[in-house]
Amino acid sequence: MYAFNYNRPASVADAVKAVLAGGQALAGGQTLLASMKQRLMQPEALIDLGQIAELKGVCKEGDNIVIGAMTRHQDVAHNADVQKHIPALAELAGGIGDRQVRAMGTLGGSVANNDPAACYPSAVLALNATVHTNKRKIAADDYFQGMYTTALEAGELITAISFPIPKRASYAKFRQPASRFALVGVFVADTGSGVRVAITGAGNGVFRHAGLEAALSKDFSAKAVDAVQVDSADLNSDLHASAEYRAHMIKVQTQRAVTHSLSHGH
Question: Residue 4 and residue 122: Cα distance in Å, rounded?
Fold first, then answer.
């Protein structure tokens, strides 16, 4: 490592000031610290968001579950409101990485980083969530903009994410055994006014699939997925899996998610 300044602000306002002055925001550190060790990133100042109380916690507000940006994966997984109202989100959080990652990683850190194989972005997009920042509210469909790219501007920090409670939802992922990231992860959400399907791990960022959404909106069953074409042209091909294999896995994981949703009543 190398020398850098370390700052622990107690409020969002102080954190934003420090970031605008050139500091790098530190959430759970699961990506940032690894990048610093490899010298891929060399920030002069780290702004640790861990002491900002207003960024933590889960609450139910009307028909939404609102989760603070600095809420750890394990706390989302174990939260009674999340388990009751959006169990698919609790299951997703409980399946991220390993126990150490879940004890440190945060919702806001994952969504701000927007790794193309991360799990949380698929939940945010499929559930039509809203990303709250210190400046505005951003709809999920406008927020994700490709690999490691989001709608966030300089000095803009995620404060919370509000997830509308779906009629039913489920997440299924085929994990890469070493990293535990999703080779292909599919989050299916029946909103009551249509089905949204968000896929992670397969392309250069999380994306929705119109064909799967249309088929499942008509007939919410695993069988409905059979007739859908999933094009491999824009999918990743790497040492873990070919684009064609990922296209096949998208259908398999979608069917798994739908079957799980139907059998568990959510």
Answer: 34
Report how far residue 254's alpha carbon sits from residue 195's, in angstroms, rounded to the nearest whole number: 12
Q: Is the dihedral of CA 34, 40, 44, 48 positive or negative?
A: negative
H/E run at residue 257: helix 243-264
122-148 pLDDT, tens digit per residue, is: 999 999 999 999 999 999 999 999 998
Residues facing 133 on adjacent strands: 158
Angstrom distance (rounded) from CA 169 to CA 251: 16
CATH of the domain at 244: 3.30.390.50
Closest CA to 67 of 188, 186, 181, 165: 165
Overall pTM surpassing 0.90 (yes/no): yes
Parent domain of 9? 1-48
Dump pLDDT digits (tens) for 207-249.
999 999 999 999 999 999 999 999 999 898 888 889 999 999 9
In whole angstroms, give the CA distance from residue 83 to residue 153.
Answer: 32
- Residue 34 belongs to domain with CATH number: 3.30.43.10
